[in-house]
Automatic annotation (TrEMBL):
This is UDP-glycosyltransferase 86A1. GO terms for molecular function: quercetin 3-O-glucosyltransferase activity; quercetin 7-O-glucosyltransferase activity. PANTHER family: FLAVONOL 3-O-GLUCOSYLTRANSFERASE UGT76E12-RELATED (PTHR11926:SF1494), GLUCOSYL/GLUCURONOSYL TRANSFERASES (PTHR11926). Keywords: Glycosyltransferase, Transferase. It comes from the Eukaryota. It comes from Sesamum angolense. Belongs to the UDP-glycosyltransferase family.
Amino acid sequence: MGESEGKLHAIMISVPYQGHINPFVNLALKIASKGFSITFVHLEFVHRKLSNAHHRSTTTDDQVDFFSAARESGLDIRYTTIHDGYPLEFDRDLHFLEYFNSLYHDFPARVDEFVGNIIQSDPYSVHFLVTDTIYHWPAAIAQKYNLVNVSFWTEPALVFSLGYHWDL
């Protein structure tokens, strides 16, 4: 790729649960090691939970950042948060159905605005969107901004097969 074309930049957004976040972190590290720029997007409430757990286990007030050591080793990984529309005190586990419906119906507008801001702030990079396969809205956002949409399945293959063949 020539200098004038810009760097490849992945905008990565997972479902906010550990079984989805961990594979996304691993994928982010892997593709960053291939020279890509990464913007890893966490939800604010997840970041807060991780920061609180980190503060209880250490004596520092540092903010949680999965990728600080990776950046020190030269990888281009940015860590940021996005708001999901609920107050931080809202119990997402207690109100799981309401919350998950919001991730499907209300959250896409926030992601759309977020992606638009990233593209506007860095128009020379070649951006692409990496999101959890469970989300239905990334294709529309990717199409709006003329991005490649990478759908990342984080579950075991058996879970995919069960869902795919559910009607049987």
